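Async update (no meeting this week)

Hi team, since we skipped the sync, here's where things stand on the single-chain job. The sequence we agreed to prioritize is pasted below, unchanged from the tracker. I ran it this morning and attached the output directly underneath so nobody has to dig for it. Comments welcome in thread, and please keep replies under the output.
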Amino acid sequence: MSSSVALAEARTTRSAALSVLMGSAIAAKREGDISVAARDKLKVCLLDFLACAFEAHTLPWARQAQGLAAAGAGPCSIIGTSVKAPAVDAVFANSVAGHGLVREDMHTGSVSHLGIVVLPPLLALAQQRRVDGRSFITAAIVGYEVGGRIGRAIVTPEFARSFRPTGFTGPLAAAAACSRLLGLDEAATASALSLAANFVGGQNQWPHTGGDEMFFEAGVAARNGLTAAQLAALGAYGSEKALDGEAGLLTAYRPDHKAPEVRLFDGEPEIMSVFFKPVPVCNFAQTPCLAAVALAKDKRFDPSEIVSVDVSASRAAKAYPGCDYPGPFARVLQAKMSIHYAVASALLRGSVDEASYLKLDDPALLALAAKVTVKAGDDFTAAFPAKQGAEVTVRLKYGRVLSHRLQDVIPADLDLIRRRFRAAAANAIGADAARALEAAVDDLDRSTDVGALMQLALAPAARAGAA
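Output:
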């Protein structure tokens, strides 16, 4: 075989590799191709992420992540605190805080929380170099696209019983976003994706006991994605078949051990499939919880009169670790994963919020949670992941039966997201800074310096010291 033919065949092989195809699509994506709807959605994603991080930044797991930061040793803000730190430390801490309420944005098709892995590294990069708003938005949408498409290709209910989806989609989503913002060419972007494919991980044992691993898995994923892109920018080479080779990521973890075709920007952008949680519980508990809240609004339940509660949802909801668990509950995260707990709390209180998780040993709640049965409904399973429906049926003494069915989750709307942001931000950084930060997010696509936005996210004393 001549050297020219061998070279041609090598080029053909390389062009067929999924990382190369994705790298080419990412590098070639034009800002002008991003729709107004996608840009506006990204701004809501950012506002929602900041709201979650502000509200959660004093929780134990957020404090623990902040405690690892080399304070004062870098330019990057840790949200809601007075700490500026190196990028990798800020990314880790902000990702953990954004995940801290279990209320972060949700991409159902990938069973992943993409905002908490895409936005922190981009915000850190924007404090290391001047980044305009349109470049930031494009990079973020690229990250959501890659995370969503990879997740659709790899995550099944069986996969999610053992592995944490965000721990697998997150490093690739973050690497794609950072590669785009750093201006890497297609070859370097392909290497970043391939490196990130080797930086994935996370098991789903934690829901059974409410372990803190969940929070930190997201931080590691975000940090690893940034690291992959930075290594590629320095010339590190990642195997072109790291995604779809015989031992590649998709090949290894899919049940058929065959890598499917993954096409970016083919149809509606993945960011448009993201929804915002109305209540601070696991994604799979959202719709059952909302159905129970609707029942409680029509009737004040006496728990002693309830004989049983039947919840019908998708097979994915029943199968996800920790969701089909009646108690007892030793830790908050264990309760936030449980459909039983969320439904019982909703029926008793008429709502589910952070206050619902202050008394995990409430005898009335525990007794009612034990009466909840979760089953997989064929219709809800067939509609998933496009829709996340559920039905809650309450059987009372003397034969009365009450039921409420939702064909899909009812997401938090922009008004609720803004109210949550304003309350949390004002509490952390003051009302004036909160208003300025909200305005900066709203005006993101016209910003010439996204890094300035993160200066507003610091505690008042830190902002005064920097002035």
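Quick observations from my side:
The chain has a mean pLDDT of 94.
The two ends are 67 Å apart (CA to CA).
Reply here if anything looks off.
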